[in-house]
Description:
Layout: H1 5-25, H2 29-54, H3 60-90, H4 95-98
Helix pairs in contact: 1-2, 2-3
Amino acid sequence: xxxxxxxxxxxxxxxxxxxxxxxxxxxxxxxxxxxxxxxxxxxxxxxxxxxxxxxxxxxxxxxxxxxxxxxxxxxxxxxxxxxxxxxxxxxxxxxxxxxxxxx
Length: 103
């Protein structure tokens, strides 16, 4: 018995909009980064689901998903390095405090 595509899309939509809500409403840089990762994971779920249901014998959606995970890992490493640097300089990782940083 197979799970219908709509169930996967509902879960992906909930993940995506939860990430968008967290990205817009949070002020902590780590919470914003986690929300961004939630958005990217929702996109990965869509890649895999559409690949499975539209092209069951092919692997393009899986490859796009793996590539997206690699890009997200690199983005997370750079973002955490920036957050650590901001914390060292300002002792806070609140986005309202970052506005006051000098160039």
